[in-house]
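User: I'm curious whether this sequence folds into something compact or stays loose and floppy. Could you predict its structure so I can see for myself?
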Amino acid sequence: MIRCPTYVSNSYESVLELDLTSCSKMSNIFSQVSASVLRVNQLNLKWSKPNCGECEAKGKRCQWKNNSTTEIECVSSPKRRIHISKQSIFIATGSIVLGLVVIAVFKMVHHFRKKEEDQARVDKFLEDYRADKPARFTYADVKRITGGFKEKLGEGAHGAVFRGKLSNEILVAVKILNNTEGDGNDFINEVGIMGKIHHINVVRLLGFCAEGLHRALVYNLFPNGSLQSFIFPPEDNDHFLGWEKLQHIALGIAKGIEYLHQGCDRPIIHFDINPHNVLLDENFTPKISDFGLAKLCSKNPSLVSMTAARGTLGYIAPEVFSRNFGNVSYKSDIYSYGMLLLEMVGGRKNVDISSAQNFNVLYPDWIHNLVDGDIHIHVEDEGEVNIAKKLAIVGLWCIQWQPVNRPSIKSVIQMLESAEENQLTVPPNPFHSTSSTSTGRLISTRRPMELDVIQE
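Assistant: Here's the prediction. I'll summarize afterward.
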């Protein structure tokens, strides 16, 4: 096989210049490329760069005009659009929803795990508590006892109270505790304390319910309700109980407090003595109730450790708000008892509460009118005057600012039982400055006294 070389030449070139012995023309080819370039196997491209400065100054771009390589024209720049596919949107949305679901599930698991731990702690306490146990009821028992919570007797800060009956002879009050957000401490506290104390002037715990989130306390029902329902001014003849009955109630409450402070294996400070928490049986014998805030103390209850104030505004001792007034001790109950006693004598509340941060203790100016002989309350005879004065003076001693100036509950009982009013010394006015006359009588300025809550 004989191979012949192939040459390429421009149309204007002469083949004689190629120094060929012989040749044959094969074809004519129209090409933009020079033959001399093809012979050396090269390709050279050339173009001119357009001047786009004028277009760019107008905020436009330039392009060749009608495929020309010499003229340009300015055209508007197309707006850039960010394209997000539906798939990307679905993935992002799904991720967010999944994250929220995971967080919600985590919160729920944490919540129910904590509730299980709280319930386990309550169950352990009840297991250890068998030696003293009152009756334990199921929630179904509680519904049956109360007739499906048919008759509500009242509602307090810790729960609603319903009428019920264990039998035709035994009527009870069932308190359903508001503990769905709590940790069970108030329930354990009240059952643990109430199950171990028995006194004529303290409510007796008959039973309890601790089933899941349902917790209830079962007490004897006292037909006369709370003392709050019987605080009326002496001139209200239709409702006022009478001075002898008031003294009977005051003495019974004091004996109940004495039992808590001195008669139990370990002293108990109630921290919430007020008319709502004193119940009256058919003979108007008082019964101290509601031990949710009570505290078991060491053998020496003169110094009690506390991290936060507890009690009902207006009845809380000053040292419970601020240690500047002294140590928290059993004297804190004495202050609450004194405020309760003065309300019983005057037949009105001595507290004006507008908020937890701002409330007034209205100093009962009529008390000094009473003890000075300028009677401004209704009495029938001299014997009743003596009772009224005695209760007022004892109440004044109990509400002294400094705990050391308040009497013990034993001294309170002695004053109520044996002393005549003229044997009792009138204490200083605890709420504002006072002065004494030549006869030694206390003169009050007779004005409301603001008691600001002092943060610890």
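Summary: Residues 224-456 form a domain with the Transferase(Phosphotransferase); domain 1 fold (CATH 1.10.510.10). The chain has two domains: 133-221, 224-456.
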